[in-house]
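Suppose you are handed a protein chain with no further information: no name, no annotation, nothing but its sequence. What can you learn? This example shows the usual starting point.
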Amino acid sequence: MLGFSCARLWDLGQQRCVHSYAVHTDSVWALASTPTFSHVYSGGRDLSLYLTDLATRESILLCTKEHPILQLALHDDGIWAATTDSSVRRWPAEGRNPQKVFQRGGSFLAGNLSFSRARASLEGSTPVPVHKEPSFTIPGTPGIVQHEILNNRRHVLTKDTAGSVKLWEITRGIVVEDYGQVSFEEKKEELFEMVSIPAWFTVDTRLGSLSVHLDTPQCFSAEMYSADLNIIGKPEDDKVNLARETLKGLLSHWLTKRKQRFGSQSVANGEVASGKEISTRSITHSRMEIDGNAENDSMVYPPFEFSTVSPPSIITEGSQGGPWRKKITDLDGTEDEKDFPWWCLDCVLNNRLPPRENTKCSFYLQACEGSTVQILTQGKLSAPRILRIHKVVNYVVEKMVLDKPMDSVNPDGTFAPGLPGGQSQHSAVGGDGSFRMDYGVLKCLVLSPDMSLATVRAYIWKKPEDLVLNYRVVQGR
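A reasonable first move is to predict its three-dimensional structure. Written in structure tokens, the prediction is:
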């Protein structure tokens, strides 16, 4: 019987405990008996492995470990022990004649009550183990015991049981940096970035490995500009939805096999790929969003390419049936669409995203105190949260200096997609160098041009009210 600090022998016919063997000082978690059931090996929370003669009650300590013992398996002349550590170790054992072990001395008689064994341990009568080193070890990968999601929402810092600190890139499922045995907290502070990106995934390490969870609609809340992801061949101002591109990367092998199986024509006609049930299910939900910046194909950008040598596994639950697990390279295109979440297929096949919370940031533009410079605005403005401050400055310069219609602002006060950003502040003025614009002033702090509105609001403004950006003209040097 497990879970107590003593092992118990039960008579199933009498339905009662006939013997108790108090050899451990803490809970017993694993047992393995000899083929004749004359002896039993036991291990548990006290890190110790014992051999006990069930007839004479004689016990002997075989070894002590650094981790609690979870499972035991007797095979020939060895006893295999699995612990909370990731490695499995084999210890010498007399499988056919276990009585030989007791001839080495150091044995003791197991008591009937667990407190008697614990008291003996406290009094210093702890036995000496027979073996100091295992005869064989199957090394395992050190389990992850600590993690931290970084502010850029693409990297996760982890620490394993070996003390090694590593940096993972979630959108590719790989380790991008191994820092070795360094301070986790110091490395976390070193990697801190003043950026604000919505949380679009959650992480747990309960199994000793990194598990990333995507749930709709929260997972579709994070966007970045293609320029920030270093995507070549894509307009730098295109917004990239991190979850959508990650799902495309995870299912790229499945999409390729699926197209090969059904043929490009069937896919294009929507006979199989579009999924009638997916479309029907989508209609029953509230407004769906079409991602106009992304092409409806299986192209995967480099920041979202997953390894085929060491591919991650997908664990999911479809619209029907229970959960299942497969490596992404094992998906052969024969899987039923009902095995996938409908919102996942709607995203990668139909380019549709579920309704999301407001991705805009409202703000006001006001001249600094004492400044006589004014611009024509329409009161409160709104723009994507990822909009950079230098774009706002370009807008201010354009409306303050150049005699142009307000084509960068929509009638409702929102920034139009064509907000100029390629020209520099001096070229906007005319290139004469007579004055320059500060990149926004907030609480007497000149903002960095690369900051986003969301970052300014989260780390500098720190108020629930709409953001207020002050501007000023600095005379030419």
